[in-house]
Amino acid sequence: DVKVTQSSRYLVKRTGEKVFLECVQDMDHENMFWYRQDPGLGLRLIYFSYDVKMKEKGDIPEGYSVSREKKERFSLILESASTNQTSMYLCASSASTGPNEKLFFGSGTQLSVL
Amino acid sequence: SQQGEEDPQALSIQEGENATMNCSYKTSINNLQWYRQNSGRGLVHLILIRSNEREKHSGRLRVTLDTSKKSSSLLITASRAADTASYFCATEGSNYQLIWGAGTKLIIKP
User: Can you list the residues of chain A whose pLDDT is less than 70?
Assistant: First the structure.
């Protein structure tokens, strides 16, 4: 089975801190995604990547950046954390790009910015 | 942007009963997917139904798709306590990226 591992289940950071969320997948998937999930809003796509060193903005990229130096690892960076970035962050991967690809998710990181 | 909208937002039923959740969407789709999320965890893929399919089964799950009404339903038969979770539908947006609804929270009472 595909395993998508997020480095932290819970994180508490202070406003203005630089925050790194790490995600690793073990199935050689081409695509990786970062979502945030807020109550009543469903999942919103922050960034995604089709290949190493490649990144594309999703629906809400402001305040975030990403890094994909290796195929298996996709990092989400909050350059200067703000309280409105308190959320559940979900990483996902898929084997390839296409209309019938399903996503495999990590367990999520609940980030609180104080 | 949200395309899938689940209905109801919350559903509470007795163990052993059937649970039905609905999803409506706005634009043409290639497929529709359903996912489950246990509290505080990541999402797990349940089933994918293609636009040329009308019904699909997987164990106790039955999914229907009505493209003329732009809607889908997920039926869970003989519910169990372990089915307590949130259920999301997802449809395809641009560049094959999924667009998610806000989910239905299902509670199975013992």
Answer: 1-2, 98-100
